[in-house]
Write a structure and sequence with these properties.
Largest sheet: 8 strands, parallel, barrel
Strand content: 5-15%
Distance between the termini: 11 Å
Number of strands: 11
Order of helices and strands: HHHHEHEEHHHEHHEHEHHEHEEHEHEH
Shape: globular
Structural class: alpha/beta
């Protein structure tokens, strides 16, 4: 690699962080599915009688696989070219008996391999390269889903930056994790009379200008006002962080790719599509149209569309999505749509086989892959990843947090070992993407 490129990469992080501090706040037939009849639900419940709070039962449903298996031996590194020669040049002849003289490559294939290995051995040795996705940006450091959080995330060198997409009353696609505004904005102070009967403030009830008038803060409990993660960005900073639009974020990432020479992709989640359908809005179609506008709708584009709703995953192909598609899976299902039975089914061999007709990525919660033991002090690896790969899907999971390790793990480092050495994840989300990037470098899985 040219020295100038190495140096540019080394100074990228401080330059971007300085910019952050100075920047203003800114159709196939439907598969056989479990229906809502009592008989079918009884079958599902009988087959998948798993209580989310009963780890022992979950471990029984997901047979354990051998842990701590010895890693495959690394490929032998070929010898470098002799001093005084460049890669691909023959070394000066050395006087030796004819019968001991090394034979020259006897085919074009061998010669090409010799040159490639001598010139770039470290790259050739990396055959397993899991992806890192910045979860809501660098949300461990800056309030989630703000443009500063995305800028900081970019500087850590992830493969993807995540966007959770909601929709305003006037059909603007906005970036926010929750369809409600309660836990990350000051909506209760600015619009105290706009809550629905359940006490929550729904973004779909507000226009774009109204949403832009809100201040985004670190996530907090609406009941107590206390931060969810006590050690993160101060909630009372007084900085006017705003809710960005999807279009703004796509422009930001493409702009950073141009100015830095990078190639960071987008990992876009359509939030609660069934809820928005009940509100008369096709959020999935709108998101696909926006990604298409910015060149992200193709198998070659560095983009992934992710959805928790099985019907929406299936329909995304009919709505024209051509790129990678991730089926997010969580026992208990979505928040605003009762699809718990469907997600139980998505954790069965039959469900995994069916979703593979549409999805290229199977993305369950990490604790479905590394199931905590009943006492919460250990875990057992399930067979979900193996089942997904048998049907041609990659396996991604979520969410690594330095300050909130998964149940069954003593710390986040141990969970990274399990993620990449045992389960062999193809991708992992993190609130601290720099931690995961650094870990992969230490393990020889990044340059």
């Amino acid at each position: 690699m040219p020295m100038s490129l190495k140096l540019s990469r080394r100074i990228l992080l401080p330059v971007l962080l300085l910019g952050l501090c100075c920047a203003p706040a800114l159709a196939a037939d439907a598969p056989v599915m479990p229906d809502k009849t009592a008989s079918d639900l009884a079958k599902i419940q009988a087959a998948m009688a798993i209580n989310a709070k009963d780890a022992a039962e979950a471990a029984t449903t997901y047979p354990a696989t051998p842990q701590n298996a010895p890693a495959a031996a690394p490929a032998e590194t070929p010898a470098a070219p002799a001093p005084g020669t460049s890669a691909g040049e023959a070394a000066p002849a050395v006087a030796a008996p004819a019968e001991l003289a090394p034979a020259a490559p006897d085919s074009a294939k061998e010669e090409a391999a010799f040159i490639a290995n001598a010139e770039d051995t470290p790259v050739a040795a990396i055959t397993y390269r899991p992806a890192v996705a910045a979860h809501r940006g660098a949300s461990g450091y800056v309030p989630e889903h703000t443009l500063p959080a995305k800028t900081m995330a970019y500087a850590f060198g992830p493969d993807f930056i995540e966007q959770d997409v909601i929709m305003s009353k006037d059909n603007v696609l906005m970036i926010m994790h929750d369809p409600v505004l309660d836990t990350t904005t000051d909506v209760a102070k600015k619009f105290p009379d706009r809550a629905r009967k359940d006490g929550s403030f729904y973004a779909v009830d507000f226009t774009y200008p109204e949403l832009r008038s809100l201040t985004v803060t670190e996530r907090f409990s609406p009941k107590t006002g206390k931060p969810v993660f006590a050690g993160r960005f101060p909630g009372d900073s007084g900085i006017g962080f705003q809710i960005p639009t999807l279009e703004e974020e796509l422009k930001l990432i493409q702009g950073l790719n141009k100015s830095t020479g990078g190639n960071v992709g987008v990992y876009v989640e359509v939030k609660e599509p069934a809820f928005y359908a009940r509100e008369g809005k096709d959020i999935t179609g709108a998101v696909i149209a926006m990604l298409d506008k910015y060149g992200y709708n193709s198998p070659e584009a560095k983009s992934i569309l992710q959805i928790f709703d099985y019907d929406a995953v299936r329909d995304a192909r009919m709505k024209g999505w051509k790129g990678d598609l991730a089926m997010l899976v969580l026992r208990g299902g979505q928040h605003l749509t009762d699809d718990k039975a469907v997600h139980e089914w998505l954790l069965t061999p039959e469900g995994i086989a069916e979703v593979s007709r549409y999805a290229t990525i199977y993305a369950p919660w990490f604790s479905h892959l590394a199931v905590p033991t009943e006492d919460g002090k250990g875990y057992k690896v399930s067979n979900l990843a193996d089942l997904a790969r048998q049907h041609g899907m990659k396996v991604h999971s979520w969410t690594h947090r330095r300050d909130a390790p998964f149940k069954g793990f003593k710390d986040s480092r141990q969970s990274l070992d399990t993620a990449f050495k045992e389960i062999k994840l193809d991708g992992l989300f993190s609130d601290f993407p720099g931690d995961v990037v650094q870990y992969l470098k230490e393990q020889g899985l990044r340059k």
